[in-house]
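wait is this the right file?? whatever heres the structure
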């Protein structure tokens, strides 16, 4: 008999409509300047740059917009991480980043 882990089940069938989490990671060259980050989430969301949390609403909530800014002092490769969890009901995650106008 073949044994399957929970990870195997998710890989084969995808997550269910409720009770799941997502972690997205990327490395990117971020130019000097002020950057605006905006999310629309249902439920929890957390955004980190280089391991430092810059935006967080880690709660059970309906569709909610959150926004923050990050000042990048030097142009360098940074690790960007977006975390999201869904408990039940409606689910949404929208992530935006753009230069912040002075």
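ok assuming it is, sequence goes like this
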């Amino acid at each position: 008999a073949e044994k399957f882990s929970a990870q195997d089940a998710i890989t084969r069938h995808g997550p269910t409509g409720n009770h799941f989490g997502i972690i997205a990671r990327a490395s990117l060259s971020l130019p000097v300047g002020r950057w605006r980050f905006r999310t629309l989430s249902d439920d929890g969301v957390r955004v980190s740059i280089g391991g430092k949390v810059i935006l967080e609403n880690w709660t059970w909530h309906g569709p909610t917009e959150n926004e923050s800014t990050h000042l990048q002092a030097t142009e360098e490769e940074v690790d960007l991480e977006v975390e999201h969890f869904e408990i039940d009901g409606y689910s949404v995650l929208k992530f935006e980043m753009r230069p912040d106008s002075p």
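Residues 35 and 58 are 21 Å apart (CA to CA). so i think its the right one actually
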